[in-house]
Amino acid sequence: MEYLDLYLVHWPISSKPGEVGFPVPKEDLLPMDYRGVWEAMEESQMLGLTKSIGLSNFSCKKIETILTFATIPPSINQVEMHPVWQQRKLIEFCKAKGIIVTAYSPLGAVGKIYGSNQVLENETLKEIAKAHGKTVAQVSLRWIFEQGATVVVKSLNLERMKQNLGIFDWKLTDDDYDKINQIPQHRLIPSDFWVSPQGPFKTLEELWDD
Ligand SMILES: NC(=O)c1ccc[n+]([C@@H]2O[C@H](COP(=O)([O-])OP(=O)(O)OC[C@H]3O[C@@H](n4cnc5c(N)ncnc54)[C@H](OP(=O)(O)O)[C@@H]3O)[C@@H](O)[C@H]2O)c1
């Protein structure tokens, strides 16, 4: 490849130089030099190596830090987002700053080692899906689309890929929104592999600025 379309800082954390496994061993976790990393990202864009640069898994507070010195603001922030973790505050914040939110694990990463069936098995979403003659996956993806967010959904199954594209010729009703707004909120993928007593984030609250 001569260039990337979009290049993201995956997490607001660094590791000791050298080969990096996943999860990164806790003793190798280091605080990120936000300014240094973002300047290098900007240089990548200025050199034409990437068309856009952005963030992933950054809280409002951490994006604010980047914005204090960015000459090229992040184009997007990619985070966990679905009707069970709606990210209302982050969506509002990013909208005000002109940053697009991308929803990852929009179906709760069902079937993945880090995932959960709490989106696809949600009774409220099942009820809404039944009323529209759609699947729960389609309801979740449509809801994300209606929030003005972009979405990365993953399937290795052709039929489900087609199903996941079938969200553009119908919409959710006010009644659906009343129900979706009442779904109890919690993060399904807290990602505590970045938390360590010796590392830069000693608690999940520090990682997410919750
Ligand atoms: N930036 C980050 O830190 C971060 C973190 C996590 C994920 N991501 C990215 O986000 C993207 C998607 O997230 P994800 O794979 O974690 O979760 P996801 O898209 O919510 O879920 C994928 C799972 O859902 C199943 N699935 C897909 N469509 C379905 C449908 N219509 N009905 C029922 N099941 C369906 C897939 O199985 P089948 O293949 O069998 O259909 C797969 O097991 C990936 O590209 C991933 O790399 C980014």
From TrEMBL:
Segments traversing the membrane: none
GO molecular function: oxidoreductase activity
Pfam entry (one): Aldo_ket_red
Domain NADP-dependent oxidoreductase: 2-183
PANTHER family for this protein: ALDO/KETO REDUCTASE (PTHR11732)
Protein name: NADP-dependent oxidoreductase domain-containing protein
Organism: Citrus unshiu (Satsuma mandarin)
